[in-house]
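Notes, Module 5: Reading structure tokens.

Key idea: the token line is not a picture. It is a compressed description, and you learn to read it the same way you learned to read a sequence, by spotting repeated patterns. We will look at two proteins. The first is printed below with its tokens.
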Amino acid sequence: MAVTVETLEKLERKITLVLPRGAIQSEVDTRLKRLARTVKMDGFRPGKVPMAVVAQRYGYSVHYEVMNDKVGEAFSNAANEAKLRVAGQPRITESEAAPDGEMAFDAVFEVFPEVRIADLGDAEVEKLSASVGDAAIDKTLDVLRKQRRTFAQRAMDAAAQTGDRVTVDFEGKIDGETFSGGKAEDFQFIVGDGQMLKEFEEAVLGMKSGESKTFQLAFPADYHGKDVAGKTADFMVTVKKMEAAHLPEVNPALAKSLGIADASVDGLRADIRKNLDREVKNRLLARNKQAAMDALVAKAELDLPNSTVQSEVDRMIESARADLKQRGVKDADKAPIPDDVVRPQAERRVRLGLVVAELVRANALQAKPEQIKAHIDDLAASYEKPADVVRWYYSDNKRMAEVEGVVIENNVTEFILSKVKITEKAISFDELMGQN
């Protein structure tokens, strides 16, 4: 029997499902008989409970279960027969206009849209490039040295300098009242490392051990402490101890402490370059992938299934609440996060997912086994025991699916970049790494 599909609007469709009452009742009876063989009730031996008692106790739940199964099966068969790609779950309601001896249900649902992608040939994409120079290696070396610095107490008459570790007592007041977090004793920080606000660090610069100073500090309007944000406090600080920083020399001993195989400065710099090259490659890939995807979405026309968007909205809100909970926020699972806050991003994700899926299907851009293997090998290369990392990926289907998704995205990116008009743009290492 042909399935009649009614178009309601855009992607919304309706199918009427008709089921014979006799078949439903027959299945209910079969399940109740099966249940009667194992059900336990007070006053009866197992398997000896009368059918009338079983039906009275379990009839409603079994009937509900059968209806769900039969209607679901009927909907699946009808959708397959009509060759529909159903998006989300159907809303099913019983219809009163059913023939004698039958039950009718209206299934209202959405279908996935037809995706139309215009010619990518006239799209323009700015493709970024960057390289690792000696300055980037020197800066990384400085970071590694700072991580291993030691401190020695300075003379009492020495003035605090950038890089010194100082121990202070301080108290801040707003309108004459000490505020939460505004007072501490024996508090340590390194001048110039940005642990304290700039005005606080500047006040301490030049001070000597045992010296006290008062100064005003204006908290930024976007300061994380809402009680003091945008307000000006009066501070008094006393320097109790000052220690000068001593950074290790760049020599074979430093290289050895960092696990460099040949314990040489050249080997250390080569290892840093290799790691920075990998980071630059990954960041460029991410930036260029984003630009390619933006160009793709701009060339696509499609309607968005509301059910899929709502599912993504719900998933994003749940993820946001889980993140808040991990940060220790009280009652994070009840945090009010309006749909409108995440809906634009949810819509973009759904749109991009549908467009990418169509591009993959139309151009055979699925991930090949050798591509997946190469990507995992690349991920594992930065670890001490790559073989263990490779086994870790291959031992979990979820991890493998994530890798497959990344490889498909890379295939799509390469395909797009092969079609569009590309403008090459070289940027500095610092700009790429977000240090400017």
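Here is the second protein, with the sequence above and the tokens below, as before.
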Amino acid sequence: MVEVSASILSMKNENAIKTLYNLETSGIDYFHIDVMDGKFVSADTTSKMLEYCEYLNSISNLPLDVHLMVEDAKSYISSFLVFEPNIITVHLEAAKSKQELLEWINYIKEKNVRVGISIKPNTKIDEILEYLPFIHIVLVMTVEPGKGGQELIPSTIQKIKELSNYIKQNNLEVDIEADGGINEENVAMLRDAGVNIIVAGSSITNSNNFKETVTKLKI
């Protein structure tokens, strides 16, 4: 069974509190916080995600899964640490050097938060292997980061299989999270490839019954 991290990226502001409550009671495992700075990706969701995190801190006990699609990761890490997230994930491609990426990883771990590295669809698995002993999660983007509602890129499935095999062969304790275009039709394929956590947004929020949809995703 996979865990479900519900993205609130496409959630409508006017129904925010009601939608968050319905997600909370649907059986999800995390709230997925998509933080974008308008530089690393074109959209800027920073203010919206800070506002939603404040809501969630007051109405929910579910853990936060913070995905930073930003260039200046250090300052964003500090901004979102106040919400005591369970996971903070930074992008490999955003780091200017190996040293900078390791600084981000260590800073997050020092705050007793699980740390993840995310990679875009065209980034090769080989580029993150050396960091696996130091992190808890790899977030594989199965669409190009930046907006919701895209279709999953099929070639990312093979990348997940390769990553899963490497983790097993080297006896590492690293979860694999997949994000982008995930729905009831393709979730089994992701699970079989080795995914532990899926990010689902519009496939849940656009459905008529959140709980039923989440149950089907948790196969």
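Summary for the second protein:
- The mean pLDDT is 95.
- The helical segments are 16-24, 46-59, 73-81, 98-110, 155-169, 187-193, 202-205, 210-217.
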